Amino acid sequence: MNAEGLLASAGINIGLAIIILCLFSIFRNQHSNANLYYPRRLSLNQSISFDRSFTFRRFLPSFDWINEAFTVSEDDILSKCGLDALVVIRFFKFGIKFFALCCGVGLMILLPLNCSVSSHLSSTSRSMDSFTISNIPRGSDRLWVHFSCLCFISFSGIYLLHKEYKTVLLKRVQQLRNLRHQPSQFTVLVRQVPLCDEHKTFSCNVDHFFSKYHPHAYHSYQILYGGNHVEELPVAFVTFRSCWDAALASQTQQHPNPLLWITQMAPEPRDVLWKNLSLPYKHLLVYRFGVLIAEIIFCIFFAIPVSAVQGIAQYEKLKKWFPPAVAVQLIPGLRSVVTGYLPSVVLSGFLYVVPFVMKGMAGVAGYVSISEQEQKASNMVFYFLMANVFFMSVLSGSLLDQIGKSFNNPRDVPSRLAGAVSARADFFMTYILSSGLAGFSLEILQPGLLTWDALKHHTWARGKKKSNYLASFPYHRVIPFVSIFVIIGIVYSVIAPLLLPFLVVYFLLGYVVYTNQLHDVYETTYETCGQYWPHIHHHVVVAIIIMQITMIGLFGLKSKPSASIATIPLLVVTIAYNEYCKIRFLPTFYKCSVQDAKDSDELDKDGASDIAREKAIDAYRPPSMPRACATMEESTSTQPLLLTTS
């Protein structure tokens, strides 16, 4: 791709983003669109003021919503939307800080260094290569400057990550303390309950077991029954007398056979996936292995359109393989649009369906909560994007570059491969523009829902009251897509620093858009108290490791083996830091320490925990079951829960 293609993509995407944001600022001020742009606030019965007078000002674009987004505090997001939502916003803030720092180093040091070298590239090379490390001659001592910047960026990323991990961990502990009256704090999910030898039922065995082995902690239980059967579910929710008792029981092996009496802290009642509780625990490994195989197959087949996109981006190769493509040159400016704008749009279109597919796959893996399912889907989407958007785009583009050259001039293969990664920088710039500027703008405008709402209320729903389009926040879509841009930005921070300003704009716009969406649009359907952060941390560490491995190879291909060797200890430090975080921080995100649980219990002196405990079992009544069938008694004997398996 040449500079004209990049400028065409930038112009189209920036123009579209401005138009879309202007339309959004107009549409959100119309009372008839309140169900689209303020569903969360309407569901909370918050008042929203509209100018209903028919004036010209009402239809003028306004960007006051951007100022409003920047004035929303973290405490406000935490109290109204929860820590999971705040983690997403802090992820965008992390990106702004980190890439602003990288941008300063890249534009002030690396970019002038790359451009100051007399170009040794051939006339067939991409015009953007003069701004990248490809312009540095092989064996040049200037590569030590790139190594120094690599070290600075790596340690800056690790420092910011470590600081963020500590902050989120403290907020998680405090959030759990604030939610100490929730039923999930007192309740443990028990699976693989064995049959009672005497009565041949699961229910009495639960009561006998916990009465005997947790006599002072056990309070009550609810066994789950299949909706179409009178027996076949070895699953129960067991309530304990305090948070401390529940934390101890959930983290303790209950039986010599670890596949019996399997305990974990119960998810929030609103977070439970009731139908998955009926799945036999011993079959879960098979389900999840099947999901893994399906994910790999889907990833392999998706490599075809990614390779095709790279073929569109490389017009000179496309012209040789597909002669009719020469017709593109007959229309002035069309080639720039085709090679600069079209590939990233096509790729974005293909990727649109990926989160839905992955969430569907995660849905059959047998997770007992929506949050676990969505976290799994988020990781699946991330690795899919890393494989297909990043690696396949680089590898397929590099392969296309080598066809017809490698066999003619074998000695030039190392130098051409050295520039292969940097040659993809222009494509990723256009991808950031199309998925960032245009993508975020479409996220906030909601054109699909806007069209559907207009169609519905001008046809079959005419005259009826409008319903709110209230949806949960799509963590499985937002987090992995932002993470892949982190990988692109970190890997190219040393190779092609001209890409970094695009990343800063990307994270700034994302911060504004999703702050607005969390405040006005999306509802909070569950709260994991920040369990998404370890996934985000892992994604960023993976990005830093990929950057370092790439630079080890690139320094070698640039005939600077000493710089490659010097990068290896940096890679070791990063991996060691990641292992340290797994030991120091990660366990606290998936287990509640007995100290925190005890401290939470000691805060309750007004009897609020007693009330919450009494309501705990009733809170875990399946939505399809009448309340009268799940009445809890003071004794440990309770009515069974009927679980629908449909």
Automatic annotation (TrEMBL):
Residue stretches making up the CSC1/OSCA1-like 7TM region domain: 288-555
Compartments where found: Membrane
Pfam families: PHM7_cyt, RSN1_7TM, RSN1_TM
Segments for region (Disordered): 623-646
Any GO CC annotation of this UniProt entry: plasma membrane
Membrane spanning stretches: 6-27, 98-123, 143-162, 285-313, 345-368, 380-400, 428-452, 473-492, 498-515, 536-557, 563-581
Topology within the bilayer: Multi-pass membrane protein
Low complexity bias spans: 635-646
Domain CSC1/OSCA1-like N-terminal transmembrane: 6-164
Occurrences of domain CSC1/OSCA1-like cytosolic (ranges): 231-276
Keywords: Calcium, Ion channel, Ion transport, Membrane, Transmembrane, Transmembrane helix, Transport
A GO MF term: calcium-activated cation channel activity
UniProt similarity note: Belongs to the CSC1 (TC 1.A.17) family.
PANTHER family: OS01G0950900 PROTEIN (PTHR13018:SF141), PROBABLE MEMBRANE PROTEIN DUF221-RELATED (PTHR13018)
Name assigned to this protein: CSC1-like protein At3g54510
Provenance organism: Tagetes erecta (African marigold)
